[in-house]
User: What shape does this take?
Amino acid sequence: MLSPLKKALALAVLPFSLQAQAYEIEPLGEGIYRFIDDRHRSVFMITDQGALVTDPMNHAAASWLNNEIKQRFDTPVRYVVYSHNHSDHIYGGEVFDTPDTTFIAHRLAAQDIANTRAKAVPPDLVFEDEMTLRLGSKEVQLRYHGPNDGRGAISMYFKDHATMFVVDWIVIGRMPWQKLWSYDIQGMINSTREVLEYDFDTFVGGHAEVGTKADVERYLTYLESL
Assistant: This one.
């Protein structure tokens, strides 16, 4: 049996072990992956010309992901795309900040990062309505849909993978954040309707589970009823 001292030491170490095990990479198709950090999720894409990473989330998570990309794929990170201005999604980008990496955000997210002096890498490129990124043979379409949650929140459509990535304002399999403190409900409805105009099979959110287009349609029905 463990002595009381050893039991105390084991319990003290346990949270750190669980935190280390919280990181996970899940394949979504050839060259596209979901990165899981506890309750947060992001997406990254690997091509023959390098990687595109979305929200880095925080320093520890971004460091782990950066090492995994180097070890598993041996390719540089060419783009980091911010989904919006919330710090729990966009911190940690300094891990990827090299002369060959371009950071991208919507104008309003970039404005908020500057005005609040957020500890996030300022974007190199900003856009107003839409931007299309091409990396290798792959295409990613970025689009601003108007107010919904946070500032400068965008959708990211990985066209060649028929995959849509949205953070915070479309959540599959659970309700939106309980306090609804930053949500524009009608804006979320309008934005979700526009997302459904895209031809995607897989939906990935910044929280909760992977879903389908039908799941997003069901979520829209819920918002309209709410």
